[in-house]
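hey can u check if this looks right to u? its 98 residues, i copy pasted from the old doc so theres a chance i mangled smth
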Amino acid sequence: MTKSITVRGVTYPSQKVAAYALGVSEATVCSANRRGALDTVGLGPLQKGCEGVHKKPVILHGVEWASRAALAEHLGVSQSQLSSYFTVRDALHSARRA
């Protein structure tokens, strides 16, 4: 039997339905429920008050981007691929200085 769940005043018939309505996974709703944090589920970075904390400008070939995520999107690559590029670039730069 599924148990109803209430998030920010809205009661959903199940965690699965709540997850769909809030745009998150069922595991996210389950985890928030266990932590007693249902009022924050589905709010993204705002739930911890850290909007923009991870955004740092990045410069590539003299052009500044608001964040690595913005640059990755522009280049059509994943953030993971971009991160790998910067790791290799930084390692080569360090090796040249040594």
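The first strand starts at residue 5 and ends at 7.
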